[in-house]
Amino acid sequence: MAVRRCKQCDASVAADEQFCPNCGAFLDPLSHEGHGNIISVSSSGFETFQLREPPEEPRRRPDRGSTNAQNSIQCPSCGAANPPTNRHCEECGARLSQAPLPTAPRPAVQATAGVRAALAISGLLFGVVIVALLFNFIGGDGTTTTTTVASTSTTAPPVQENAPIPVISESCSVEPISSFVCANLTSDTEDSYQINWEDLQAEEGTLTIRLTFDQPMVVQQIQWRNLTDPVRFQQNYRPRGLVITADVQVVDFAHELEDVEGEQVFPYAAVGANWIQFEITSAWVATLTEGNVFRDLAIEEITVIGRPQTAPADTTSTTSTTAP
């Protein structure tokens, strides 16, 4: 049987094999390089056989058809039987052993010159600090060093409950009738504020009332009080349509009052308000009661409910003295 040499590992391979059984390299069957024997055809038509070197005894391969499966290795890729000394399949070149290939050990991490220099400088500085501390401790003059530490603690102000907001001034756009002045709206008395509503309507005017506070306030609700006497309540005009604004308000707030005597409460929200303003745009009509009816619009009191926006915090300082 003709044999040839593997270019990869120089092993002897049968001429009809396409893969080296030792290293698995592909062997071109059309190439004659490495063949020990060459057969040529002469001009006379007869084949000429030239023997360049003594034939090498080919390695004995197990019979693929043999039933002795214990002495052969089956290829996991194509199923062909291979001698137990083969590392790669003679048919497809696949690796026969599926064990993991050995890996080189991980190289040891070596510190660079920069890292070594940084470590040396750190060690030197640490040594200098230790020597300085020892010198200060041993060669000190025994005097006591006083260290003053100031600490500041802040106490949050207590949360205040909602209550009537104090009003420092009242202003009304329409002059009052007699002693029924604008200040009666916040006087906490039964005195009322009254104007001639029919004349104001004839002039197509409106009534505006502004209440000013002593500091920014968080407004929560409005307490509006009409006349409490039922007869006087019916004889006078009563406010109906309101438009409420504040200095921190972007959009006006519209509200319709109920036609009832006494107090009525409705919500209104404003944060940081320094003043609040009420514009009366309409009124409930006065009715004839006990033979009398008046042209006046009467309001007994306006109370704004809320709390201050901010309160000062308590600040305390402490001093401590320490000696080495």
Question: What features would you describe in this structure?
Answer:
There is one protein chain. With 324 residues, this protein is mostly beta strands. The protein has three helices and 17 strands. Strands 8, 9, 11, 12, 13, 14 and 16 form a seven-stranded antiparallel beta sheet that branches. It is elongated and about 145 Å long.
Annotated CATH architecture of the largest domain? Sandwich
CATH-derived topology of the largest domain: Jelly Rolls
- For the secondary structure, the number of strands is 17
Structural class: mainly beta
What are its keywords?
7-stranded antiparallel β-sheet; 2 domains; Jelly Rolls; single chain; mainly beta; 324 residues; 36% strand; 17 strands; two-stranded antiparallel sheet
Secondary-structure map:
Elements (H helix, E strand, L loop, with lengths): L2 E3 L6 E3 L22 E5 L5 E5 L21 E2 L6 E2 L30 H26 L8 E9 L7 E2 L2 E6 L20 E4 H6 L4 E19 L4 H6 L2 E9 L6 E4 L6 E22 L11 E4 L1 E8 L5 E9 L2
Antiparallel strand pairs: 1-2, 3-4, 5-6, 7-17, 8-16, 9-11, 10-15, 11-14, 11-16, 12-13, 12-14
